[in-house]
Structure formats: structure tokens, C-alpha cells
Amino acid sequence: MMYRIDNIKVPVGVEITKEHIAKRAGIHADKIGEVRIIKKAIDARRKSNVHFVYTALIDTAEKLNNLMEYSELEYTFPTGKPRKMRPLITGFGPCGIFAALMLAENGYRPIVIERGADVDTREALVEQFWKSGSLDVKTNVQFGEGGAGTFSDGKLNSGIHDRRCRFVLETFAKYGAPEEITYAAKPHIGTDVLSEVVKNMRKRIIECGGEVRFLNKLTGIITKDGRVCGAEVETDSGKYTIETDVIVLAIGHSARDTYRMLADMGTKIEQKNFSVGVRIEHRQSMINRSRYGEFADRLGAADYKLAAHFDGGRSAYTFCMCPGGVVVASNSEEGTVVTNGMSYFARSGENANSALLVNVTTDDFNSSDPLAGVDFQEKIERRAFRLAGGNYNAPCQYVGDFLGVKAEDRVLPSYRPGVTFCNISEIFPDFVTDTIRKAIPEFDKKLKGFADGGAVMTAPETRSSAPCRIVRAKDSLMSNFAGIFPGGEGAGYAGGIMSAATDGIKIAEAIAKWED
Fold first, then answer.
1. What is the average pLDDT value for the chain, to the nearest integer?
2. What is the mean pLDDT of residues 451-464?
3. DSSP string, 384-446
4. What is the reported pTM?
5. Which residue in 44, 4, 511, 81 sits closest to 292, CA to CA?
């Protein structure tokens, strides 16, 4: 029989053994057969007693009356009917990749178009931009194989509770991610590993009869009587049309021209709340000491997650924290500045960084236009570009200068191509910088050193989530046009790699079930 054993405590520096598990289960170690670790976390609530906490599955012939037998439900894709036409998937980020993989493995032979380049070409073009400030608007941190998440920490933790999440983690591990992501409490892949995983998943899609076409951009959707019948695609060599009755919109949150095309054709789009702010950097060693105390040198790079709520409905929170990472230029349009954070798998960089964001509500747009949030973002990004000198440098300011406090040991900003020190308050609406000023001291109460004057802020972080939502039906997952399936972050239904990937699976299931 298989049992789940929770809350197995193991000291730092000690490997978990059957004896640890047996003690928690209340049986002898020799009565335990197969063991599988399904969760590993660090408990750092008390700095004097930092330890690991495990959850394990054990196979034993013993009857453990204090525990329920464990039975694991494996994910299975629903049986569906064949389709006359090949589904078209637009975008090859987490949502598009998993939608394509599920459809390909189940005989639907999807066609994937991605406006950016393959990941190897993409990495070279992004590195060139970071070195020289030469932006490629077709292929960049936002556009290309793997989506925006490719240039991130590759974090795979999520707040959603969906049986598909386990399948997503196992799939990533199957295609090259480390096995530990299947049990770590806060799993991550890192940009360097994720790029290889994405390539392996692409190969599998092609092996199963799918196609992946890079530098192919969706420019129009052809409909008849409220139903999809084709797509218009643009490439470097010209335009062409794909005949299809299914289009998955896995476009990502930066495809602003696609949002406008969809709005012009009558696709129902609505405003939604999102957040904007800065990237804040501290020394990783300080974060480690603050989180782990005397155990700081014996554990890996520490992370954190902070939030504060203020009168008037404003709140601030940290997001996409990158231990041992760097702040990166994430532009996809000329004349703008956009920041994000990134870590490699080792998380060995000198600095830690995180988005420090303030909530923006639809009331802040002062417009009924469904794409007013896009305009809100663009204005901030263009002001940042001008303020920093118009050369893709990013506006930067030390916390000491921002709050009027002393800064002794200043953190060097990691952003490339470069930074321009200035007053970041000139970029944002007043409510954003006012809330950040309130939040930093509050966060320091929870994470000592957060408000140190030597910490540095680079602006702006504007694309933590989509600024609008492409409306879809709850059951069919289709838009107001039959055959259009909006999904992932760009459609407003996900907030990270895991939720976007699971949404892609849901869409593939919906396509398989659709009887038109």
C-alpha cells in the first residue's frame, strides 16, 4: 500500500533517509519499501532552527491506521474526434507549446506560427541588444521561441491548484529540466536550461506531425458567419493565408499590434487590472542573511515574497523574484524602455532582484477603450526612454536618494545596455511612486535590509501581466468568434509559466471535445 507522509523534518546539511521517514510514520525503517519524495521546502521561520521539510510517498505492507492510503491520479488527455483542418496555434510560449504538444501527440498535427525566431537565434539577438542597444523588433525578450518566460528565472511555482500542474512539471523534466522540479516547493529551471527544454519539446511536436514556423506573424483572421475560416500571416518573404477552423491565441502580453487587430475585427476584449513599478536590487548575501541567519552560507540563494496594503485600495508587492539574477532590458518596441528579471539555473549572481509593483485598476485609465491599459503602459515606457537619454538606457535611482536616507554600500545595477541615474518619480503617475515610498519601509520590517539606501531601483517594470482580457466562454473557452481560443498570459488567463502551460492544456482539451 502507498501512503503519503507529510512534515518530515530534516536538519540542514543532512540527507533524508528512510529512518527520518519511518520515525514520522511511526513504523520501523525496514518495513518501508519504495520511497518517492514529492515535496521539499525550507522552513526558515525561526532563524535559530532553519531546516528542510519533506513530503514522501512510501510503499509498505504495514497498515497505518493514522493515515489514508494514497492513490495518484495520472493525467489523461480526453478522447476527441478528428478534425478536417489542422489547428493553428499563434505564439510559442508556455501556453502555445503545451497546446501544440497535446494536440500533436493526439493526432491533430497542429501548425504553430511564432512571430520571433528560434531560441538559438533569439539568444544571439537578445545578447546583441544588451551589449549595443541595437533592438530587433521581431525577435527580442518578448517575442520568440519559448515566449517571455524564456528570459526569466524559469520559476515553476504557482498559486493555482490544478491537477495538470503535476503533469506540466513532469513534462518539463522529461524534456531536460532537472528532476528536482517535480518535488521542490519552489521549482525553477533558469534561462539556460529552459532554452534547451523548449527546443526538445519543439522536436517532439514535429516528430508527432506538427509544424513550427518561426518569423511568421499573425496579421489577420478570416471569418465567415461568425466562424473562423483562415488566418493571414506575414513573413520576411511576403504574406500568405492558412486555411483553418481553429486558432489558438497564445500571443503573449506584449503583442499590442495583435490586440489592436483583434479589436478592429470585433473580438470582444475587456479592460483588466494589472500592475507597474520597478526592479529593485539588493546584494544576494544580504537577502541570504536576512532569510536564513546563521545558515546563510549552507543553503542556496534565498528568495522572498512581500506584500503591503494601504488606505485607498492601493497595494504593493514583490513579484518574479530572481535570486542571484540580473535585471534585463525587455523591450519589444522602438522608443521604449521595459525591464524584467532573469536568473540562470545556478542563481550564482552577486545581486538579487525583484519586481516591486503597485496595483493599477481600470479606474486609473480614465477611458472606456478596452485597450486603455496598453496606452497606460506605453506612456510610462516612452517617458522612461526619453528620461534615460533615448538610447535604451534605463532610468535608475538608489533607494537612499528616493527615500532621503543614507546609503553606505551601494549595489551596482546589473541592467544592460546601461543605466542613467535620475528621478524615477518623473516616469510614473504619482500614486505609483507614493505607494512604493510607503511599501519599502514596510517590507523592511519583514525582510531586514530591504530599505537599505544602497539598494538600487531600475524602471519601469510594466509587463508583469496583460493589460486587457480577450473574453472567452467559460465552458468552450472560445471567444465571440467560433473557433478562436484565447489563452495564456496574453489573453489574460494566466500569470506565469505554470498557469500559462496548464491553460494551453485546457485549450487543447477544449479543441478535442469541440463538436462543431
1. 95
2. 97
3. HHHHTTSSS-EEEEEHHHHHT---SSPPPP--BS-EEE--GGGTS-HHHHHHHHHHHHHHHHH
4. 0.95
5. 44
